[in-house]
């Protein structure tokens, strides 16, 4: 994979050139304590018409998804639609996509990667990028968090997802809250085993942001929990990533009353016209 600076990649193409950018984002919106209207207005609306696909975790209801969709609209020329997984209770997985840029083909939930069936199954959607014709799979994940028992289940999820990806023929973009605790201070020397199980045999690669900040607001940890991984041919796409809302104020006690305790993340891919 060719990694580029996010600013460079955003400026790399101009209208009329035979290439285009696909922009994706992921956000754990923290059902229960966060206010979906605040999240929609302050953290989604500023990126309207800039992100082609959002992958959300901890979505409480259809109403939340509709608020997020409305925040992405900007009048004429926008047509955002959403998908919401069935598993997970009030901590479900969702996708909002720009139907003017992407053709939706199908979606499914990977129930086999939901040990005991007690959490949310990975949500997979197949799209075609209209400009280039490129088909790809977009996956939203939210793996187990917590103690030794849940760590074992998280590792099982990572292993199963790696095995599933090996059987796919399309490029894969897999986003979400993986709870891999990639420690920033040690440059990843300290990290959860799940990261290695997911990426083993180079099945997946992390589109690593150039500037790292903790993607969650717990002051006891300085780590990355939220990732954008790529598999298959997507590993060869020029890409760049960044963590949105990096300022310390994002995690202030005042914000914690209505905001998510996770930062959104974004990646930009360059796809060339004529790709299969």
Structure description:
The protein has five helices and twelve strands. By secondary structure, the protein is α+β, with helices and mostly antiparallel strands. The chain has a single domain (6-272), classed as Endonuclease/exonuclease/phosphatase (Deoxyribonuclease I, Chain A), CATH 3.60.10. The protein has a six-stranded mixed sheet. A six-stranded mixed sheet has the order 5-6-7-8-10-9. The longest helix is centred in the middle third of the chain and has 19 residues, at 148-166.
What does the secondary structure layout of this molecule look like, with pairings?
Layout: H1 6-11, E1 19-28, H2 36-44, E2 53-59, H3 62-72, E3 80-84, E4 92-98, E5 102-109, E6 123-129, E7 135-142, H4 148-166, E8 172-183, H5 193-199, E9 204-206, E10 223-231, E11 239-243, E12 265-272
Parallel strand pairs: 1-2, 7-8
Antiparallel strand pairs: 1-12, 2-4, 3-4, 5-6, 6-7, 8-10, 9-10, 11-12
């Amino acid at each position: 994979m060719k990694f580029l600076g996010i600013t460079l990649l955003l400026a790399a193409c101009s209208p009329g050139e035979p290439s285009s950018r696909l922009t994706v984002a992921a956000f754990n919106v923290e059902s229960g304590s966060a206010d979906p209207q605040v999240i929609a207005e302050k953290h989604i609306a500023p990126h309207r018409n800039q992100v082609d696909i959002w992958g959300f975790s901890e979505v409480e209801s259809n109403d939340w998804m509709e608020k997020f969709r409305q925040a992405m609209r900007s009048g004429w020329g926008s047509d955002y639609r959403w998908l919401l997984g069935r598993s997970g209770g009030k901590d479900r997985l969702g996708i909002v996509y720009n139907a003017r840029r992407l053709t939706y083909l199908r979606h499914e939930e990977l129930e086999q990667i939901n040990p005991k069936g007690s959490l949310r199954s990975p949500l997979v959607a197949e799209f075609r990028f209209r400009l280039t014709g490129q088909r790809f799979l977009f996956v939203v994940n939210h793996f187990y968090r917590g103690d030794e028992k849940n760590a074992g289940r998280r590792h099982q999820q990572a292993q199963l997802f790696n095995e599933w990806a090996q059987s796919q023929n399309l490029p894969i973009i897999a986003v979400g809250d993986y709870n891999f605790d990639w420690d920033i201070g040690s440059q990843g020397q300290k990290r959860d085993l799940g990261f290695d199980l997911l990426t083993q045999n180079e099945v997946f690669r992390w589109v690593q942001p150039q500037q790292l900040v903790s993607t969650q607001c717990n002051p006891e940890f300085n780590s990355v929990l939220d990732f954008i991984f790529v598999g298959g041919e997507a590993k060869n796409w020029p890409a760049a990533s960044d963590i949105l809302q990096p300022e310390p104020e994002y995690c202030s006690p005042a914000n914690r009353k209505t905001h998510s305790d996770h930062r959104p993340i974004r990646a930009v891919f360059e796809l060339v016209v004529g790709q299969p």
